[in-house]
Amino acid sequence: MYAYDEIDRTLINERVSEFRDQVKRRLAGELTEDEFKMLRLMNGVYLQLHAYMFRVAIPYGTLSSPQLRKMAHVARRYDRGYGHFTTRQNIQFNWIKLADLPDALEDLASVGIHAMQTSGNCTRNVTTDQWAGVAPGEVEDPRIWAELLRQYSTMHPEFSFLPRKFKIAITASAHDRAAIKVHDIGLRIHKNEAGETGFEVLVGGGLGRTPFIGKVIKPFVHGRDILSYVEAILRVYNQYGRRDNIYKARIKILVHELGIEKFAAEVEDEWLATRDSALTLDNEVVEDIRSRFTYPHYQKLSDTPDELTAASADPHFARWLKNSVAPHQRTGYAIVTLSLKPVGGPPGDATAEQMDAVADLADKYSFGEIRVGHEQNLALPNVARRDLPALWRQLDKLGLATPNVNLVTDIIACPGLDYCSLANTRSIPIAQELTRRFANNDLAELIGRLHINISGCINACGHHHVGHIGILGVEKNGEEFFQITIGGRADEHAVVGTLIGPAVPFAEVADVIEDIVEAYLALRARPDELFVQTVERLGVEPFKERVYATR
Amino acid sequence: MPLVKQGKMVADGYIHVADDAEIPVDGAALISAARFLADPEVLLKRSSPTGVIWPNNRDPEELVPYLDKLAVVALVFPSFRDGRAYSQARLLRERYKYKGELRATGQVLRDQFVIMLRAGFDSFEVKKDADAEAFAATVKRYTVFYQPTGDGRITALHQRMQLRHAENAR
């Protein structure tokens, strides 16, 4: 955990007091809605279909138990008793009142939580691997760098009014859980020959109506130079990014229009002029940040304790263990994913009661720490393997032990037309119907790893382009239709999926997905050939034939 | 439109000269970039202070040969959402070492004062009277700054190192 010091706390409190004043001026009519809009967005406040929506940052996906309890408190006190975890390590509250927002922010500030820059045309919450610091084989803990970038990008005096939003993600593992290739800047931590930490820097990735996979702009930027290099990218973007058309304003379009070589040359020129500046990170400064991340005092424990062996006789427990529990850096410990995708539920939602209970379980079993991943699930990162049976029983009672992590019902979905004013179609009911169709755990296990992503409009908040199966809602003559893509992926082999044919109406989506899955089961070369591998091997045609032959 | 300079509301001594208007022989004047660049040497020999209004899509490096003679560089925020002039301001101050008045013009609102100061602006053509009056109070709102810029405010990272060194010295 990173502990905020007096300096960080002061800034958050100053921000709350500024926003309180801005809300007061808006309510008094001194600020027009147009003027207020950018200010509220930069404090995480959207105007949705039915109410204001409040998006709170969970920096690099790490929460302490008091912080999660405060989220529960906000859900209960100012909202309707639940929150929604997003694909960018944020939580959203959907029913908040404008006049209550300053108080909600003040309550969150008391535990070092804020909503700064969770929206607006500025650098958004810097995200990383939800298993950071505990994943086996990780180069080093990426959260140190995420925190340095968080501080650097918070209230940046030059980059608070960029052409468009700007998202940075970091990974330090060979398997990319942070989807860095679909971010404006993706950073992959690795070491040079001298054993020094640096970054492979990718730029220009993103989804939305024009999806791009990020391109490598520089294979190695030394850790001490990362802030000046990011500043050089942002400065080129701030000056030359398009401002004439909101849909062409992301950096991916600038990179695409200039070409990566020319863009890289512009950045290099700018960087060489600024690299030897106060932005250089001395080792001492990095170590100071590192020293404020505390790590649990792990015990020497067995990976195969008796409690675990005994409990594994229960097939329900065994299934969950196989599905939701991952290896840890330390012997005797495990990383436990808590599925927020119950059958029939909206993906990523948690009630205040669940949040409080998870905070208690974190205190009891995970050194008080909780993680939030971009797949809209939670994780307890530090569970002793001997405690797994006891933890499972309690999670099961809370509805948080659905053994579907990374399976067909572990669906990523945007809020869609149930909440969002931009949406063309609903997303949540599609996800709910699919979880019912594939509710049989044996079937889901047979199918294996399969990511379904649903977006209710072309803005792609559900990341449909990079779902193994992507579902995109479009409106046709006032009716909801859905385009289906297959073969996309968001990891280190990121690729945009391919459209399989004409859009289908709302009522047929679940049938079509079932057809695609059946086709896969018939076509796969072996049981362990994943859906996405079968699509890669055969292309979309055999799937298309099956789906459209009878339609 | 009220002008705030060095933290105080003052009368604007400069005339904004329209592109088709005659440049006055006497009196401080702000001249458009195109007109200024057409004949910079002559304009800089005027007996009164001369400034230039620099659009936000033009590279400020073009101004480098004239910076020590320009009394004012006025950068433009056509809308407060358009942040290009922040980069221009930092380049002028930090890279090209411009020491004269750096003025923010256009849609300049209270909620941008702090970052404008940090980017190097020292005068502000403020859109609303109430915002200009609130200048002194608004700029005191923040005491913590995470980024190093040319304004010399100490960053949080370095503040922490100072605290740490002070603790170690004890």
From TrEMBL, chain A:
Has keyword 4Fe-4S? yes
Which is a Pfam family this sequence falls into? NIR_SIR
UniProt KW keywords: 4Fe-4S, Heme, Iron, Iron-sulfur, Metal-binding, Oxidoreductase
GO molecular function, one example? 4 iron, 4 sulfur cluster binding
UniProt feature coiled coil, ranges: none
User: Where does the Nitrite/sulphite reductase 4Fe-4S domain lie?
Assistant: 119-271, 408-547
Boundaries of each Nitrite/Sulfite reductase ferredoxin-like domain copy? 52-110, 343-397
Query: Could you tell me what this protein is called?
Result: Sulfite reductase
TrEMBL record, chain B:
In terms of domain of life, where is this protein from? Bacteria
InterPro entries assigned to the protein according to its UniProt record, in alphabetical order: UCP030820 (IPR008318)
What is the protein's name according to its record?
Oxidoreductase
Q: Which organism is it from?
A: Tardiphaga robiniae
